[in-house]
Amino acid sequence: MKTHIAVVASPLTPAAPWQWLHDAGLSGAQVQFCGQVRDEQGRVEALHLEHYPGMTEQVLRAILEQAELKWPLNGAWVVHRVGTMAVGEDIVQVAVSATHRHDAFQACAFIMDLLKTRAPFWKKELIGGRWHWVDARESDVEAAAAWLQAASAHEP
Amino acid sequence: MIEVKLFAALRERAGRDSVTVSPPPSVTSVFQLLDWLAGQDAQLAAALAATPRLMIAVNEMLASEDASLAEGDVVALFPPVTGG
Q: How many whole angstroms separate alpha carbon B35 and alpha carbon A109?
């Protein structure tokens, strides 16, 4: 499986994962997830993301390795933006290619769910001219745990 | 020496992004380090107390409070992550 992992401070290019994953017929499926800055009913003026350089890349690499053990994938792409971004801009791209669509759909969701709860990124929202840290969601923790419980359920 | 890195809301509460400490030899786990740090530094103790569900990394790998520590380790402390 080929992999591409990056943390960048500039705007993301929507078509980049598709072009990079394209493999002229090896894969029958590509699935791409793109996370964007929500305005939360017009309240959010901007978003700022910080991360832990070094650890972030290591965690993302480990997540892709886990995905590769679970599904037969041909390629996986994770690019995450940091710094200050505007409402509607792309925050993260997760894209995978596989021979069959089911593996690609599942692997993309798995990578995203684990990224949300393990990769060391933190968000702040600008609301009413003041920055506020975003709280983690319990539902994200449960989504990641569900994948890991499903995995251990298959073990003897 | 152990370097302790702080991130996000915890960094802001503590008023710094890292501290380098030389705890006594009796400190051999992250749990013991946190306990010792809180006794050394009131501002850091208050910042940690204000950070529920603290996450921990040792040498850039996610770890638990039970993780053992050795000279030269880098411990990172942070609130639950919110990327994606």
A: 38
Q: Do B76 and A55 touch (CB under 8 A)?
A: yes
3-state DSSP assignment of residue A67: helix
A117 interfacial to chain B (CB closer than 8 Å): yes
pLDDT digit string (tens) for chain A, length 156 residues: 999 999 999 999 999 999 999 999 999 999 999 999 999 999 999 999 999 999 999 999 999 999 999 999 999 999 999 999 999 999 999 999 999 999 999 999 999 999 999 999 999 999 999 999 999 998 998 999 999 888 776 655
> A145 to chain B nearest CA, in Å?
15
Quote the CA–CA distance of B72 and A140 in Å, as a whole number: 33
DSSP-derived secondary structure letter, A135: P
CB contact under 8 A, B82 and A115: no
Pairing type for strands A90-98 and A130-133 reads unpaired
CA distance A116 to A146: 13
Contact status, residue B60 vs residue B73, Cβ threshold 8 Å:
no
Kindly state the greatest CA–CA separation across chain A.
Answer: 54
The pair of three-digit structure tokens given for residue B54, joined into one six-digit string: 């603290």
Token pair recorded at residue B26: 């009796």
